[in-house]
């Protein structure tokens, strides 16, 4: 198995082969998620038959997203739930019926270990990796709500600086569906820095039926936002720390908004089959 480009999430109480929980104070009212935290491919899957170096690319995981997640959780004192398996094994940010749940081809790379995945193997990966990760998120959210807390969910991702030969001008993108409570002030907070170019549902659209935020936030009426940061800005430790420092006061301000402390269902406009 190729060495991780980043350290795996810390294995603490509540962790498993499929997820890790970074403990924090539920009273912060914030839960941070990282769906594509690592490029780990557990035994017996080896390297999925990929050539050396492929798992270190963005197809294997969201480069830098884990480091930002951990640094942001530390600054806020908030809990985080992060995955411990590569998105190429099975993508936790897809619905179970999504055709891109297990990718056979990703950004030009054929994934030999996924070529012959049948229904039984798909179910095996769902049960071993995907479902425990989502169960951990659901359990933490339930624990917070039992304390009378309406959790604000921050989902951390990253994207490539160039896609299909075209440079991406955004430093970060804020993805959302119909619930504006966290997304709109997050965009405003980042755009307050004139040096930043911040996308509103760019470079991706935040409406994706069955994805992590649809499953745990949109359908439950919980405030949420997906934050994408360009990978070249956070691939190293200092960059990740800088972005955590930038995001922390904005998240704190959003958490203090009266409407963020309420359950509110806005519905969804999600009808999109794929997000990179």
Helices and strands in order, then pairings?
Layout: E1 19-22, E2 30-34, H1 65-76, E3 80-83, E4 105-106, E5 109-110, H2 119-146, E6 152-159, E7 162-163, E8 166-167, E9 172-175, H3 183-191, E10 198-200, H4 212-216, E11 224-230, H5 231-234, H6 237-255
Parallel strand pairs: 2-3, 2-6, 6-11, 9-10
Antiparallel strand pairs: 1-3, 4-5, 7-8, 9-11
Helix pairs in contact: 1-6, 3-6
Explain how this protein is built.
Helix content is 28%, strand content 16%. It is an alpha/beta fold and 276 residues long. The protein has a seven-stranded mixed sheet, with helices on both faces. Strand 4 (105-106) and strand 5 form a beta hairpin.
The low-confidence parts are: 1-13
The whole-number mean of residue pLDDT values reads 91
- Please state the oligomeric state of the protein chains shown: single chain
Question: What is the CA-CA span between the terminal residues?
Answer: 24 Å
Output the helix-strand order: EEHEEEHEEEEHEHEHH
Biggest sheet descriptor: 7 strands, mixed
User: Strand order of the main beta sheet, please?
Assistant: 1-3-2-6-11-9-10
Number of helices: 6
Class of secondary structure makeup: alpha/beta
Helix content class: 25-40%
What is the alpha-carbon Rg in Å?
17 Å
Number of strands: 11
Shape: globular
Strand content: 15-25%
């Amino acid at each position: 198995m190729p060495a991780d480009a980043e350290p795996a999430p810390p294995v603490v109480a509540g962790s498993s082969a499929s997820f890790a929980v970074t403990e924090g104070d539920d009273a912060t009212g914030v839960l941070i998620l990282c769906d594509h935290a690592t490029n780990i491919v557990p035994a017996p899957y080896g390297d999925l038959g990929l050539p050396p170096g492929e798992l270190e690319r963005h197809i294997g995981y969201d480069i830098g997203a884990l480091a930002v997640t951990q640094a942001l959780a530390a600054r806020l004192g908030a809990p985080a739930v992060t995955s411990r398996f590569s998105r190429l094994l099975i993508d936790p940010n897809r619905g179970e019926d999504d055709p891109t749940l297990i990718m056979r081809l990703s950004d030009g790379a054929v994934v030999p270990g996924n070529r012959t995945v049948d229904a039984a193997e798909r179910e095996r990966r769902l049960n071993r990796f995907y479902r425990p990760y989502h169960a951990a998120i659901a359990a933490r959210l339930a624990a917070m709500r039992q304390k009378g807390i309406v959790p604000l969910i921050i989902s951390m991702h990253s994207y490539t600086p160039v896609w299909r030969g075209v440079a991406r001008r955004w430093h970060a993108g804020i993805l959302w569906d119909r619930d504006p409570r966290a997304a709109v002030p997050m965009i405003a907070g980042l755009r307050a820095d004139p040096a930043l170019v911040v996308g509103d549902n760019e470079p991706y659209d935040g409406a994706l039926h069955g994805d992590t935020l649809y499953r745990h936030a949109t359908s439950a009426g919980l405030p949420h936002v997906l934050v994408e940061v360009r990978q070249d800005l956070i691939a190293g430790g200092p960059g990740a720390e800088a972005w955590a420092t930038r995001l922390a006061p904005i998240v704190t301000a959003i958490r203090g908004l009266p409407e963020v402390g309420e359950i509110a269902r806005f519905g969804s406009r999600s009808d999109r089959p794929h997000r990179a």
